[in-house]
Amino acid sequence: MTQPRIILPAGTTETALIDGISAAGAAPELMAHTPSADVEILEFGAPARSPVTPVSPNGCPTPAAVTRAVREVCGFDVTVVDAGLAKPTSVPTVDLGIEPGDDIRDSVAVPDAAAIFDRAHGYGASLPDGEDDIVIGETVPGGTTTALGVLTALGEPTSVSSSLPENPVERKRRVVDEALAASNFTAGDCESAPFDAIRAVGDPVQPTVAGIAAGVLESTPAASVTLAGGTQMVAVAAILRHAGIDAPLEITTTSFVAAEQGEQLESACAALDCELTVTDPGFADHEREHVAMDRYCAGEAKEGVAMGGALSLVPESEMAAVRDQFETVCRRLGIESDGLAERSGFDPGSDTDTPSRAEPE
Amino acid sequence: MTQPRIILPAGTTETALIDGISAAGAAPELMAHTPSADVEILEFGAPARSPVTPVSPNGCPTPAAVTRAVREVCGFDVTVVDAGLAKPTSVPTVDLGIEPGDDIRDSVAVPDAAAIFDRAHGYGASLPDGEDDIVIGETVPGGTTTALGVLTALGEPTSVSSSLPENPVERKRRVVDEALAASNFTAGDCESAPFDAIRAVGDPVQPTVAGIAAGVLESTPAASVTLAGGTQMVAVAAILRHAGIDAPLEITTTSFVAAEQGEQLESACAALDCELTVTDPGFADHEREHVAMDRYCAGEAKEGVAMGGALSLVPESEMAAVRDQFETVCRRLGIESDGLAERSGFDPGSDTDTPSRAEPE
């Protein structure tokens, strides 16, 4: 009788503002609104207090629109955790006292990484029986760059995805190299010290997701925790393993991340003893043309806001209904099947190949 | 495709600690947990971070258990607003910066009543289209005493309900008289000045409910707002009318409040131009004996945590399923059909005729 639950830590970081890493060309004050707008779309079906709908100038809406479409068809409960939001949101949030992250090129990016993990652990452990099959997602602009940072610091094989069709991975690597140097670390220096890695080159959403997962797993041995996301969740799994947590873990992500990452994703998950599930919304097979689905198929956005995990809740027989509902959600957000009806606070003159939704994965 | 939504401002006040008004005999630190536990039961089906399940020594569980049973059968979204919680909760909340209320016998009970209304108004106005048919409930121990206080200060006919089978209304009147005197007011002095009334003798949940209602109604003229509660919502309706808001209002409450209040409730609603709907869970007709249902039928608890409003979402054909599910929720809370299996933090030696859930209505 009770519904599944998706827990969604949502945060921001100054790292997202680095030129060319995420939403270069979109105004920084819009990017800071992205997680707040994402959770409003997930909770209400449209932005509320947030002044912007995260869509790219190409008409590719945030993955929150897909996750919301699943919610409208299948139903699930949502718990948003404030993991460093920079802007107000109308959505109720769990307050664990988490501040936005700093630029990883500073000497410290997340000063209280270990304390955030502890508080999130306490939160996960406090959830009652019946709340032990949980899906944890994320929304944090710049999150794949901080994922690369942490994986590099931990000495794990590093491959991360991007919300851009052309992944600026070399640029990210240069940023991470600079970030590690600023913290007096080189690759692998933080092996078995995951909170040092996050503190130096991570973001506040990472210890929040990891802490909730660890709290649930340690308080309920029979619990099942799904990390809903792509390479950002690989980084979280690595954090958990380097923290000595060997409970079963599963990563569920979208076919769009899997297509980009190929074997690398599978081998990363295998190395972390982490089951991998790939979900496909079937956008390529949809019976009508829709610009948003086309953009996803072209490699934009790919994942975020627990999109892959939400799709795993959809019975195959309902997937066409989810695609239809995605069209409805898009229309509500001002995106018609042939493109943007209105730009919802967007400057149409801004850079045309960078989505305002910065690095959902 | 989207579900109905219940918005639940939850708060506490020192007024609840007055002897004989609410949970006399239960330890004060338990009573302060009641709203936090209520919202956890509503959101998770059981308490999480809260150390106590609000049930009376007679085995009468908090109305949150009924509202949760409706949710498990019919499904609705929940938005909890922190309207002055004193204890932590695992449930995500909207943070409007609201503190617990003071004792109404102090000169000031809610120092920033007007500012709370303004912030709540902004919140209500921020809700997007599609969120305009809302149900607003409450959970605040001592709430009927502060309702009596505000109604008296506004010069409205005063009759309030109680969670006790024997309503200690004369005791409440004496407290309110003392409270008004402490603020240098007499009955009717705050006519057309509802925030003065709340500031002097109200609680922080009142301006929160009123503000959200006003924000929704003023931003969306076609909106429909249901105030889910009994005489506490009569006080909120009076606050709105005295604030000059003449939009349509509806109060939905339970048959248990209606049975106690009789004509007085109808005439109070009529005087405030407020439609009244009474909902009946059919506990008297349930096919099996259940101590919790018996207690409600005997006049305990009666209303709270949007119970009456939640029941209004239930089609008549589903009401038996709600009762069955209520048995399931009770069992989860340690209440078997013939009584308490465990007392969940309760002192069984405490006063036997006063519920720990203090004054849900």
UniProtKB/TrEMBL annotation, chains A, B:
CDD domains reported in the protein's UniProt record: DMB-PRT_CobT
Similarity field: Belongs to the UPF0284 family.
Identification of the protein by name: UPF0284 protein C482_02376
Region annotation (Disordered) ranges: 340-361
InterPro entries from the UniProt entry: Nict_dMeBzImd_PRibTrfase (IPR003200), Nict_dMeBzImd_PRibTrfase_arc (IPR002805), Nict_dMeBzImd_PRibTrfase_sf (IPR036087)
SUPFAM superfamilies, per database record: Nicotinate mononucleotide:5,6-dimethylbenzimidazole phosphoribosyltransferase (CobT)
Molecular function as annotated in GO: nicotinate-nucleotide-dimethylbenzimidazole phosphoribosyltransferase activity
